[in-house]
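User: Hey, my collaborator sent me this sequence without any context and asked if I could get a structure. I don't really work with proteins. Can you help?
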Amino acid sequence: QVQLVESGGGLVQAGGSLRLACAASGRTFSNLAMGWSRQAPGKEREFVATISRSGGSTYYPDSVKGRFTISRDNAKNTVHLQMDSLKPDDTAVYFCNAATRGRTNYWGQGTQVTVSS
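Assistant: No problem. I've predicted the 3D structure and written it out in structure-token form, which is a compact way to encode the shape of the chain:
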């Protein structure tokens, strides 16, 4: 089992920034690929960032590329999502995700991000 606890969500004006954090426990953190996804009301969940076990490889969809940055600290078992130039369309519940080598996925409880126009 992997436990994931997100923090850092909140209300921000358009153009502002937020930094989300996810603390992981229960497995060797460096064996987990990590990611962030989001789900807005009435929409499907979408991945917004992923990072490899070593941190050497990241992925972003076009919708957030250049504005979001994912990073991880394997010594502190944490992953962060730095979100800059936020837009009202970024409003959603953001979830931390961990994937084992066996491709089992775990999800956190989510943190709300609201961007006002």
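In plain terms: The chain has a mean pLDDT of 96. You can pass these tokens on to your collaborator as they are.
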